[in-house]
Specification:
7 helices, 53 strands, seven-stranded antiparallel beta sheet, flat, 9% helix, ten-stranded mixed beta sheet, mainly beta
Length: 751
């Protein structure tokens, strides 16, 4: 090495003793050709310095690299334990910057030489294309686009952590690098991302946020070394590891990306809406786009391929994105049509409507009738209209006129009793009901403890709405409205204060809400409860250790309640030891176990009912004939059906279950006369709910409508020409009104 060269090196070393050492550039192994590369410039917030370049003779080649003490650990992935070729996190490298001028009075450091070496055939096979960068473990060799480059120091493994020369890496990636002389930090900039490193520190920052590395950054022969994963993780660079080849391949694709979508269905002649999406991993602006095969309107049905690509401000085009578009023939609207079994009817004669509407795709999604009464009771022509709509929104209507003569077949009352469908309702003179004979039933009880949490129904503040202890068969009825002004959740916490592990079993579940409508929540909770009883799909079992608390009935706390919303829950449960239950309402983000100790016990509202009631299942079995004459079976009237008596454990008072909400009625009528109408008539106000009749769920007024007291009745069942045994399962729906009557009416003779 000549004197001039020695002086240059000494000068550079003196510079680095005064300022922090910055990373060394990658060099190629052959200086006969120069490869244009993404050059990272070295800047400083206060003083800008270049790291000393290393001559070609001082750089180790991959082939000449000697084994180190860490050779036994060569197959350790860069900070990972993934198998070969394992995909790790994403990335979006960015930007080039200009080289700053030297400050006045100082000697510029030599510029690092970036020289390519044309790769041999063997090197090409192990290298990468498309901008990917291959690093070789325990070697300073790097390959990119089939060309070999050398780093200032080999990729090293220390204590199981893989280190790379930071300057060599960012040169190849194309990031910006600078040095902050005030904080003594080396800085990497990728678009809007900024990474800061300090020598001998395991802490680095990403956009001001401190993160930990698996090993400290360090200096090695004027080269700044950092854990590889600190950069790949911070900048979301995807890489793969090949243990057999001892390589790490960084995915440095810098092409912009393009894609687009169109509407789900396209018909010939429709305007096509193209929704494009494009981005640059380098954060560059998208400046141009090109289409192939695009048409704003496709005149003919068929299959078309449309391709889209974009260009960024550096002039690089994305890979083309293609989409195959299927253009259907134009949609034909449905054809509405119906007929009737006759063209002329008597007053009170049942009309049969036969829907004959069609659609070319058999995709009619909505049918609306107008004036399709089951019978008319005023003579004259009657127009009936049907409107059908297909899945594309196209619709068609058809109107037919039928004639009603002046002759009467059935009166309105007789017709309703005979022909109103099960689950529908009709009007009648409800004033006649109290005079009907009561069915003189008696009942027995099944052991089931009812916990009715229904007061305060409107909860104004966070707190405990119910507390109770129970074992064995227990039924929960929970019905509350959120009026706290916050989004809240409700929980049921079960605590085992026994010295033994307790088994808790959820046998069924009927939960509805949150919803603004109390009657809707009440009806749906009963509906789901009955279906759960039928299917058994909601059975759950858990074990609660001594002293442990667990959340039960977790459907209750699955969704937060907004202001003014109501929830309603019914569930039968069983525990083999006494458990302590707390039903609470708290702000949605609070921990229920932490909050429980500080919550107040809320007082009842003085209007609605709460309490603990034993024997909450009533079994009614009646063997005498019903239906041969008008009769009624009252429920929830506190006379024929007395209120359950219990206690309010929080107020330490006796409680009476007004309306017997939460009571499950199992009614078996073993001798229902032939041709009997069984119907449901509310007496206390509007009612919306369901019942199980012979195992089938029957709506008490379909289409989400309610029954009004006292002049409406809903059809539950009709017997035929022979007597029957009929079983009815019923429980009062929250939000509705009691008492109610089951009516038994002899059917008129059919004509």
């Amino acid at each position: 090495m000549n004197l001039k060269k020695n002086l240059s090196i000494l000068t550079a070393l003196a510079v680095f003793q005064a300022f922090a050492v910055l990373p060394a550039s990658a060099q190629s192994t052959d200086q006969s050709e120069t490869t244009p590369v993404n050059k990272a410039t070295v800047k400083s917030v206060e003083v800008l310095k270049k790291e000393q370049t290393i001559s070609e003779s001082d750089v180790k080649s991959g082939a000449d690299t000697q084994p180190t003490q860490n050779d036994a650990n060569e197959e350790v992935n860069p900070g990972t334990t993934e198998p070969p070729a394992t995909e790790v996190t994403p990335v979006e490298p960015v930007t080039e910057t200009e080289t700053p001028e030297a400050e006045e009075g100082e000697t510029p450091a030599p510029t690092p030489v970036e020289v390519e070496q044309p790769a041999t055939g063997n090197q090409v096979s192990s290298g990468t294309t498309g901008g990917d960068l291959t690093l070789y473990m325990n070697s300073n060799k790097m390959m990119q686009d089939g060309k070999t480059y050398l780093a200032g120091q080999p990729m090293a493994v220390k204590n199981g952590v893989s280190y790379v020369a930071i300057r060599a890496l960012v040169d190849r990636v194309g990031y910006d690098v600078k040095y902050d002389n005030t904080t003594k930090e080396t800085i990497i900039i990728s678009g809007e991302d900024e990474l800061r490193f300090k020598t001998n520190s395991t802490i680095y920052t990403v956009n001001g946020e401190s993160r930990s590395m698996k090993g400290p950054a360090y200096q090695e022969k004027n080269t700044f070394m950092v854990p590889l994963t600190s950069i790949t993780q911070a900048l979301n660079i995807t890489y793969t590891v090949n243990q057999s080849a001892k390589t790490v391949v960084l995915n440095l694709n810098t092409k912009p990306a393009a894609s687009f979508t169109v509407q789900k269905e396209i018909f010939a002649g429709d305007v096509v809406t193209y929704t494009t999406k494009s981005s640059s991993p380098k954060g560059l602006a998208i400046v141009d786009e090109r289409w192939t095969g695009r048409q704003d309107i496709f005149d003919q049905p068929g299959t078309y391929t449309v391709t889209y690509a974009v260009q960024d401000s550096s002039g690089q085009w994305s890979d083309p994105y293609s989409l195959t578009i299927k253009v259907e023939k134009p949609n034909l609207p449905p054809v509405a049509m119906f007929t009737t079994d006759k063209e002329e009817y008597k007053m009170g004669e049942k009309i049969t409507y036969i829907d004959q509407s069609t659609d070319d795709e058999n995709a009619i999604t909505k049918t609306v009738w107008d004036n399709n009464a089951l019978a008319f009771f005023v003579p004259g022509p009657k127009t009936v209209t049907i409107t059908v709509t297909d899945k594309h929104g196209a619709s068609d209507s058809y109107t037919k006129t039928i004639n009603i003569t002046g002759e009467t077949l059935y009166s309105l009352s007789d017709f309703n009793q005979l022909f109103t469908p099960v689950g529908d309702k009709f009007t009648f003179n409800g004033g006649e009901v109290p005079a009907m004979e009561k069915v003189p039933y008696t009942y027995t009880d099944e052991p089931s403890l009812l916990i009715r949490s229904n007061s305060p129904e409107t909860v104004n503040t966070e707190g405990i709405v119910y507390q109770e202890s129970s074992f064995g068969q227990t039924r929960f009825m929970i019905h509350h409205v959120n009026n706290t002004g916050k989004r809240v959740k409700m929980y049921v916490i079960a605590t085992n204060n026994n010295p033994y592990t307790a088994v808790f079993e959820q046998q069924n579940m009927g939960f509805a809400g949150p919803t603004p409508f109390a009657t809707v929540a009440g009806k749906l909770s009963i509906d789901k409860w009955f279906k759960s009883i039928q299917t058994g799909v909601d059975t759950k079992k858990m074990y609660i250790l001594p002293g442990e608390s667990k959340l039960i009935l977790t459907e209750l706390n699955a969704i937060p309640m907004k202001e003014g919303q109501v929830i309603s829950l019914y569930s039968d449960t069983f525990s083999d030891y006494t458990l302590d239950y707390n039903v609470i309402m708290i702000e949605e983000n609070k921990d229920p176990f932490e909050a429980l100790a500080t919550l107040p016990v809320l007082d009842r509202d003085g209007v609605h009912n709460r309490g603990t009631y034993p024997n909450a299942t009533r079994v009614i079995t009646y063997d005498q004939e019903v239906g041969s004459k008008p009769a009624r079976l009252p429920l929830g009237d506190n006379s024929s059906d007395p209120n359950l008596e219990g206690t309010d454990p929080m107020a330490h008072t006796i409680a009476s279950n007004a309306g017997n909400f939460g009571v499950l009625y199992k009614i078996t009528l073993n001798n229902v006369a032939p041709r009997t109408l069984i119907s449901f008539n509310p007496r206390g106000g509007k009612y919306s709910g369901v019942a199980l009749v012979n195992g089938q769920v029957v709506q008490l007024a379909s289409d989400s409508r309610s029954l009004s007291a006292p002049n409406e009745q809903g059809v539950l069942h009709r017997t035929g020409s022979f007597g029957e045994s009929v079983t009815i399962i019923f429980s009062a729906a929250p939000g509705s009104n009691l008492p109610v009557n089951l009516l038994f009416t002899p059917l008129p003779q059919e004509k």
